[in-house]
Fold:
Amino acid sequence: MATARPARSDTGTTVATARPAVEWSVSPEPVHYPDAVAAMEERVAGILARRAPEQVWLLEHPPLYTAGTSAQSDDLLDASGFPVFKSGRGGQYTYHGPGQRVAYVMLDLAARRRMDLRCFVRDLEQWLIGTLAEFGIVGMCRSGRVGIWVETNGGEAKIAAIGVRVRRWVTFHGVSLNVAPDLAHYRGIVACGIREHGVTSLAALGVEATMADVDRALRRNFDAVFG
Structure:
């Protein structure tokens, strides 16, 4: 967890410098994917120029698929159902839509945190695992499978996805957590290139949680992991 850096006062004594708070934003209506990407680009530029604070942006998208930088064409099973957008984030195909909480995370790793992308991804994993724990769900990481997984009857299923991009050590894109989306919408893709396992959600696991409930848990666990 990062801490505030000390600074020297005019008298030569060491004083603590207050770190600007991470800005939290929640969009009440679904945000079109190109609009979200444009807003992230603008915020990243502002962070790099030291004229905008770090941000966590919580939102939903209309139903759509995104293709990350490692997406394979064979994993797009049906391109006729929803629009498909190429994305600069890492990873393969994923679905976004109503009932899924997307959290775009724009943090300055160079100025305020560790310049370690693997550590950042591990922190995102712990953030999601801690959030799920508040609803009685045991989230797990699996070697070779990005995202957060849960045990289901006879196997495992993915409940949260991670896909990030970094520009000059400022992060963007982020995570998505299935609260109560229409899981049938995943049928148009091989989610994250993994054919052996399915997807699930809090609702499918019998957890009745509102998006506001999830947002509060995300906020609490973000502070615990990232400070």
